[in-house]
Write the structure tokens for this entry.
Amino acid sequence: MPTDTLSATLSALADPTRRGILARLASGDATVSELAEPYDMSLAAVSKHLKVLEHAGLVSRSRESQWRPCHLEAKPLKAATQWLEDYRKFWDRNFDSLAAYLKTMDGDHGRPAKKGRSR
């Protein structure tokens, strides 16, 4: 099991069921039974997914009488977003470079534009 926060977050997000649970919790707290409704799996299986999300710090549980709601904790998602943002900037720069290169080829039917001679 990953020990650093980012690795635990990304590992938890790797599973589509856990991403679905987080999406549901983004609209409000829910019980395990409520979270299990859209899935063809046992409550025990959903609970295992919740344990992974809890370990990653993405979900917390509280107790209100007999109701034990699960709550989305967004802080680890913010850290993952910041980490991914660096790669988005990298790809933006690369696409900008590609666009500039393609623009030089545009008027020359696929051949790189010739550089002008200085006199």
User: Anything to note?
Assistant: The chain has five helices and two strands.
